[in-house]
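FORM 7B: Structural annotation worksheet

SECTION A. Query
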Amino acid sequence: MCRRWMRTSTWTCRRLKRERTHTAQRDAPLGRVDSVLILGIDPGTAVTGYGVVRAGAQMELVECGVIRTKADQPLPARLKDIAEGVRELLARHKPQAMAVEDVFYARNVRTALVLGHARGVILLAGEEAGVPIHEYPPAEIKKAVVGTGAATKTQVQFMVTKLLRLKSAPQPADAADGVAAAITCAMRLPMARAVAGLGLNTLGARGRR
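SECTION B. Predicted structure
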């Protein structure tokens, strides 16, 4: 069943949820747990996709969906809905890491600026929650999940389905993109733990904290 959060226009899809086999150790440091819960987000002012992935011996999809805003609302109201939706996800899942898709190149300057506003409130929500935030360019996410930075949305959905052993692809495509961001972060964890063992504090070129 799918659940709609009316106050924040958050649409949460649980049809792809797999049975949990263990509980994430949420309060332990990032490099010292058997599993890590990651919230991946694909920013957008109309539709913001998200996916919650547990990374351990295997990757497991916990939840995915989208945060929708109304087209007839002014931008500040839509940004408020996005921020509140992300805060609800952070409060409900208490992830240990947050992966956010970085700004892509857009010929339309206004499109890039508006997307930047959406990313801003998302990053703020993560910072307020004290969650380490890691940003990845779209091409890097596609390459990590599909193997090429020029992959199509359909290809991303297909590989997300295979990597997480799902019966069907996450829908809509924005949700799959959010899951892909989380998977990319999960794929960086083994290297991050190795680096942490060397006394360095990083999860990637654009990771923070």
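SECTION C. Observations
Residues 1-32, 197-205 have pLDDT under 50 and may be disordered. The CA atoms of residues 5 and 167 lie 25 Å apart.

SECTION D. Sign-off
Analyst initials: ____
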